[in-house]
Specification:
The protein is α/β, with parallel strands linked by helices and 502 residues long. Helices cover 33% and strands 20% of the residues. It is built from 17 helices and 20 strands. The strands form four sheets. It has a nine-stranded mixed β-sheet, with helices on both faces. A seven-stranded mixed β-sheet has the order 16-17-15-12-13-14-18, sandwiched between helices. Helix 1 (26-35) packs across helix 2 (42-51), helix 2 packs across helix 3 and helix 15 crosses helix 17 (474-489). The N and C termini lie far apart (74 Å).
Amino acid sequence: MSRSGTAAGLVEPTFSWVPPHVDTYGPQVAELCDLAGFPPDPEQQLLLDALFAVNEADKAVALENAVIVGRQNLKTGLLKQAAIGWLFLTDQRLVVWSAHEFRTAQEAFRDMEELIMGTPAFARRVKDIHRGNGDEAIELFGNRRLMFKARTKSGGRGLSGDKIILDEGFALQATHVGSLFPTLAARPDPQVVYASSAGKVESAVLRAIRDRGRPGGEKQLAYFEWCAPPPKEACKDGDDCTHALDVEGCGCDDMRLVQAANPAIGRRITVTYVRGERRALPPAEYARERMGWWDDPLVVETPIKAADWAACLDEESRRTGSVALAVDITPDRSLSSIAVGGRREDGLVHGEVIEHRAGTGWVVDRIIELFRSIDPTPVALVIDPAGPAGSLEKRLLEKGFSMEKELPADKWRLHFMGSREYAQACGALADDIANGQLRHIGQGPLDVAVDGVQTRPLAEAWAWSRPKSGAPIAPLVAVTLARHGHATFGVTEPVAPFALWG
């Protein structure tokens, strides 16, 4: 069906997977690109066939689509070709092209404007072109738009559309995808495209996509990656190779391996230029950009082991009796989490995230609603005042909370946790998990936080670290505080005589 099956010179991707499908609009998209004088390379055709693959309902089979390959090979061209297909073939209402820098988004806008306006069949369908600073867009008749956005530190708000391009995926942050995907749920046929070269140490989001994509088999993720065999196979010294210019037997000097990772060599990229890059670039940068070798972080042992956390899973777990609530907010204030901590009938600790939503405007009202509806009334609301949620203090005090030691009868307890107490709370939760004393019900945001959390020293103890963690940890922080709040204010059972002596 597609050109890729018969195209000469196709450089096969090192990793590839497309969910099962019944048809593809890839060839028709290629015809439109031909009309614009911008035909796809064989690899781009392969990717278009995957991106425009559909099921029996004529919907895209892949919600997520990832393309990982070195710079100047095919990514930007592919994204332009995809945008043409979405605008002029499948008639998408809103396509959003995002990059992590404003300058890159502007360059993409100028390229697309030139491509569309330079093709008469496309140009006559253009209603308006918006060139505002940060509001660049190409608007077509029929209420269809291609918008260009720079991703901000505040996350993915403003990126929602029917088709989303996340260019420069190595710079994606958890807040970008965390606030983007909930907005796509109501779209009739949403898709997200990740395009990037190999990831850096800090590319936790892209790395997670890689780890899901390389094995293949996911029903809604299409994945393509071009890279050379890893150093342990490509280099004489294996993983110990420094990739320096004077190292004998380094895979970076084997042009066959370089070409396997760079399908555009011999088309847009010359061998002479690549050899010049080898001399000019730092070895690690060349290895990442031209060999497709990721800058993976060192494996660090975390206080919560994956096996221990899995052993604490009980999807039917339910708390009974008194509970404490806690709230935490991500530093960019894009996500907020409310958690409950209590005990089960068997005495085990129960920790659960009961709200995890975008923004902060809903938090105080929801907390008040919970304090009024939970029976018995929660024993405390716990907040880390040094964290982002500390800003809620004034509003909570106005709404009936009190931090007085002797709690008035008409007030709810608000407990601000000190740094020493926070370290105790983190350690206590980690001990509960390691010793099988906690149960959770298996919640995505909490699982992601546990998987990505790292720690920071705090006096002679430690606490969760937001900057070092590879995911938003607000759900885990909230569970930590809620568990501690219940242990402090809600556990009233007397200790049996001589229990400490066995």
